[in-house]
Specification:
Layout lengths: L13 H32 L2 H28 L2 H24 L5 H25 L9 H52 L4 H4 L12 H8 L3 H14 L3 H11 L5 H22 L8 H21 L3 H28 L6 H30 L2 H20 L1 H8 L7
Helix pairs in contact: 1-2, 1-5, 2-4, 2-13, 3-4, 3-5, 4-13, 5-10, 5-12, 7-13, 8-12, 8-13, 8-14, 9-10, 10-12, 11-12, 11-14, 11-15, 13-14
Length: 412
């Protein structure tokens, strides 16, 4: 394998190899924790409402603290901030495992522990995203972001696969231990990275700006503004399908866990394919067009999925959902990374993290509620149509947007 060619060129960077290893282990640990915490909450309460409370506890700190966490990422040494919050996350996960071993975990304690892990994540995510451009040469940024997406999708598939045997053989406490150790892997990777003070310390801003500066930058930027609108529309209207799959599996296709696993696997394979395909790109030219095309593919496949009554056809649709949605997400993040000045990168990505991670949950809640009233197919088709229209508008405006988006300031 020649690391100097194709998507593997990013692995020439020692920092990226360390980051990649830590991220795969950490993301897999997070997925293991999510499965274990959800199962434990169901055992403790037997209540779907408590499951909703658990999900809210994880995302709430990000929703509330994103202006502050972004400012921290733009004002403090980013590696030091990452080390502090990843170390705290490891400690919290291991304490939760200890409490579970003694049988002291209640629903309330589990919600509190999840809230604290979410609090750490609120500060870790913008710092993580601001460090990505420092992992490899600027010309390899599209490859680095694409490979990061590939790793996230691998972890999304592998994590739940590891959670089941961990819970069966070692109990839920073992799953929490594995999550804690995954944070330790990130801490070790961060300590081993060869980063200069210029890599980890943001430049002092030449312009006044506080916690809301990231939002102001997005609102004033002629390229970022429509880009974030597309990201938000897609997150609200199209991406909720992943959270709503159980309703289709049981209510439309009349399948069990095997049918659900087939759909998730197909989406994961499509996502991996999109990530690997994009990892071969090194040029920023044409990314705006590519993002719009990926968006149209993902939205169209989502609509076709909702309209079919065949589980086999649905599997094929989910393959293209994975390609389109993940491809659009990877290109969008590349464009955001490349067009930002380093002095505001943390605050912009704190806002990005909220839009990207919280909007799908809100969309799933809205579409699911309407689906309970009128049936799940119609609302999903409407959401897909909205995402398709937004992507098509970006396609029409691509020549106007490209000069503002297809640039590279990622070297800081």
């Amino acid at each position: 394998m020649d690391l100097r060619k194709g998507p593997f060129r990013a692995f020439q960077s020692r920092n990226f190899r360390l980051f990649a290893t830590g991220q795969v282990l950490s993301l897999a640990g997070t997925r293991i924790h999510e499965v274990a915490a959800g199962w434990l909450m169901w055992q403790l309460t037997g209540s779907a409402t408590w499951l909703g409370v658990l999900a809210l506890a994880e995302i709430l700190p990000r929703l509330v603290l994103w202006p502050v966490s972004g400012l921290v990422a733009d004002r403090m040494d980013r590696r030091r901030v990452a080390l502090i919050f990843q170390s705290l996350a490891a400690l919290e996960a291991l304490v939760l495992a200890l409490l579970q071993a003694f049988g002291w975990v209640s629903a309330e304690i589990l919600v509190l522990a999840t809230f604290l892990l979410g609090l750490n994540s609120a500060f870790w995510q913008p710092v993580r995203l601001t460090l990505i451009p420092k992992l490899a040469p600027p010309e390899d940024l599209p490859t680095v972001i694409a490979l990061t997406s590939v790793m996230a999708n691998v972890a999304r598939v592998v994590g739940p696969m590891l959670a089941a045997p961990a819970i069966i053989w070692g109990g839920i406490g073992l799953a929490f231990v594995l999550n804690g150790l995954s944070f330790v892997a990130v801490v070790a990777a961060l300590l081993m990275m060869r980063l200069t003070p210029e890599d980890t310390t943001p430049p002092r801003s030449k312009k006044p700006g506080g916690v809301w500066q990231g939002l102001a930058v997005v609102a004033a930027h002629p390229g970022m503004r429509p880009l974030f609108i597309l990201i938000g529309i897609f997150a609200l209207a199209v991406r909720p399908l992943a959270d709503l799959l159980p309703a289709f599996v049981g209510g439309v296709f009349d399948k069990g866990p095997g049918g659900f696993a087939a759909l998730i696997s197909a989406m994961g394979i499509g996502a991996l394919g999109a990530g690997l395909l994009l990892s071969w790109r090194q040029s920023y030219s044409g990314l705006t067009t590519l993002m719009a095309v990926f968006g149209m593919v993902g939205a169209t496949a989502t609509a076709l999925f909702a309209l079919t009554a065949s589980h086999t056809i649905a599997i094929v649709c989910m393959l293209f959902v994975g390609v389109g949605v993940t491809g659009k997400n990877v290109v969008a993040q590349t464009l955001v990374q490349s067009g930002l000045d380093d002095e505001v990168r943390g605050r912009v990505f704190a806002f990005y993290s909220v839009v990207f991670n919280a909007a799908p949950s809100a969309g799933a809640l809205l579409i699911g509620y309407i689906g309970d009233l009128v049936g799940i197919r119609g609302p999903v088709v409407v959401g897909a149509a909205i995402g398709l229209a937004a992507s098509f508008l970006v396609f029409l405006w691509r020549k106007r947007l490209a000069p503002y988006l297809e640039v590279s300031r990622a070297e800081g």
